[in-house]
Amino acid sequence: MQKFLINKEALSADKVVIHGQDAKHIRKVLRLKPKDTISMTDGHGTDFTGCINKVSPECVEISILSEKKSLTESNLDLTLCTAMLKHKKMDEIIKQITQLGVTRWIPFYCKRSIPLSGQNREEKQIERWQTIARESLKQCRRSCLVEIMPPMDFQQVLAFSKDCSHRFAFWEASDRPLAGPFPGENNKAVVLIGPEGGFEEEEIRRAAESGFMSYSLGPRILRAETAAVCACGLIQYLLGDMGCES
Ligand code: SAM
């Protein structure tokens, strides 16, 4: 069964109330009743099991039975940075990377990215992306929401990446395969994926100056959203919890 996202601040005396669409889903789709158990998370790595006390059209009242640290989060702190693409592609990336256990996502502007105009537009987009991240979390039973950062410019992305041990820039012109070992001081990785028109060579040079190695994803040109998902899956395999040694 899916995990429901609760606000830890809303927990009082080991009780929590779920409202809105989630309450409707519990009542109408899952048809849960009093005494049924339910899985929940606070979106910050803690899971809860609860027992339903009351189901009404407005809300579902639950008693918390147990609380534990999540077992579904990766040991790898993985940041995906994708150049701004068309809306639908960005939405799809958030859904997929939630499933892949990515820690945070940074959309960024570079020479060939698709611009988002106006401050309000950016705020609205971030809200929309956060909603997609919340919905995706429930489905895949994760316990940490993907942290959605406000769009940055390329220089800010490079500065952000400074404290990551593993810096990967995916570039179709690179001939370096993604093969370890990847020694590092911390288990923090950052991935750069360019826009549909690709990175400019000068951007790859600047990334290299900031400690990024450029890597190939093979001889075919992948769509940016495919490349993002593929790169995150491979890196979770090599450094995170999708491989056999984790
Ligand atoms: N403009 C490029 C072209 O047509 O040759 C393609 C850019 S690709 C659609 C978008 C992004 O996906 C690239 O900037 C890169 O980050 C990533 N990408 C796609 N295919 C790749 C590959 N084979 N190796 C490494 N990165 C790749």
Task: Please outline what is shown here.
This protein has 246 residues and is of the alpha/beta class. 31% of the residues lie in helices and 26% in strands. Strands 6, 7, 8, 9, 10, 11 and 12 form a seven-stranded parallel sheet that branches. The chain has a five-stranded mixed sheet with strand order 1-3-4-5-2.
Mean pLDDT level: 93
**What is the top-level CATH class of the largest domain?**
Alpha Beta
Which geometry do the CA atoms define? Answer: elongated
Say how many strands there are: 12
The number of helical elements comes to: 6
CATH topology assignment of the largest domain: Alpha/beta knot
- Ligand list: S-adenosylmethionine
Low-confidence stretches: none
- How many individual domains? 2
Radius of gyration: 20 Å
Give a short account of the largest sheet: 7 strands, parallel
Q: Tell me the CATH architecture of the largest domain.
A: 3-Layer(aba) Sandwich
CATH level 4 superfamily of the largest domain: SPOUT methyltransferase, trefoil knot domain
Percentage of helical residues?
A: 25-40%
The H-and-E topology, N to C, reads as EEHEEEEHEHEEHEEHEH
β-strand percent reads 25-35%
Catalytic activity: uridine(1498) in 16S rRNA + S-adenosyl-L-methionine = N(3)-methyluridine(1498) in 16S rRNA + S-adenosyl-L-homocysteine + H(+)
Domain Ribosomal RNA small subunit methyltransferase E PUA-like: 20-64
Domain Ribosomal RNA small subunit methyltransferase E methyltransferase: 73-236
Organism: Desulfobacter hydrogenophilus
